[in-house]
Amino acid sequence: MGSQSSNQAAHVQRASDVVLVYGKSDDGKGYDVLRRRGEELQAGKLRPLDDGKPIYGQVVRLTPRQESPALFDVDVQHDGRGSTGRPAKVASDQYREGWDSIWANGAPNRALN
Questions:
Q1: Is residue 62 part of a domain?
Q2: FRET pair for 106, CA 20 to 30 Å: which of 69, 70, 72, 91?
Q3: Cα–Cα separations (whole angstroms), residue 89 to 37, 47, 49, 65, 106
Q4: What pLDDT, on a 0 to 100 scale, did the predictor assign at position 56?
Q5: Cα angle at 93 between 106 and 86, to 5 degrees?
Q6: Structure-model confidence comparison of residues 98 and 76, the more confident one
Q7: d(CA 85, CA 82)
């Protein structure tokens, strides 16, 4: 019973994330797509991964559907989209405290050698 319910949940999740490929991109290196995630409809581009180039957006695996050769179920492998909408925090509080202890030492030393 448990495996049947998990299979149904996976099917519902897959069915709610679908891509329709409708044409080649302007540069000919990818495809123009419409993607339905739940109730949301998005237009986008589908491009192959290239070694050494940054990833913008998501890495997805597409599984063809039997209804149409242009319809695919989407399985997100990696979500490279920013989650916070803010820049990454690259310096920790400990780093900042260490920086202050080294460089923020009060009055400057005015002694000659």
A1: yes
A2: 91
A3: 30, 30, 27, 42, 27
A4: 83
A5: 120
A6: 76
A7: 6
